[in-house]
Amino acid sequence: PGMYDASWGRVINIASVHGLVASPFKSAYVAAKHGLIGLTKTIALEAAARCPDVTAHAVCPSYVRTPLVEAQIADQAHVHGIPAAEVVSGVLLEANAVKRLIEPEVVAEAVAFLCGPSAWTMTGSVLPLDAGWLAH
């Protein structure tokens, strides 16, 4: 059965901090992530009208240590002739207050919380996991 038939469900979209702020040279990515946040909010409103225990949320991390990001770090280090650690702190995490990549487990913990029973209070929410990026 579907979420409405079960009278319970969670839609959790993984967006990005780039769904909340823009960066140069990322127009398609930023547009897509802004759109995903808009979709999340629309789903939340539509779902709430049908069943208060079907919710929608978006998680917005900054850079997460994934194979894709690790490859980006290596590519940037090669292209610019700088150490990988400098790519992380000076390029990828320049806007972060905390200069640390987010581990996938941290994102999973946030998603697990949003899957819990209290998450109905947050339907339509956008949860930044931005290491202080948005504090500027």
- Strand percentage lies at 5-15%
The proportion of residues forming helix, as a percent range, comes to: 40-55%
| Major pleated sheet | 3 strands, parallel
Report the total helices: 5
- Tell how many strands the DSSP assignment holds: 3
Question: Helices, strands, pairings?
Answer:
Blueprint: H1 3-6, E1 9-14, H2 27-50, E2 54-61, H3 67-80, H4 84-92, H5 104-114, E3 126-129
Parallel strand pairs: 1-2, 2-3
Give an overview of the whole structure.
The protein is an alpha/beta fold and 136 residues long. It has 5 helices and 3 strands; from the N terminus they run H-E-H-E-H-H-H-E. The chain has helices at 3-6, 27-50, 67-80, 84-92, 104-114; strands at residues 9-14, 54-61, 126-129. The protein has a 3-stranded parallel beta sheet with strand order 1-2-3. Strand 1 (9-14), helix 2 (27-50) and strand 2 (54-61) form a beta-alpha-beta unit. Helix 3 crosses helix 4 (84-92). The radius of gyration is 17 Å and the shape is elongated. 24% of the residues are buried. The model has no long low-confidence stretch (mean pLDDT 97).
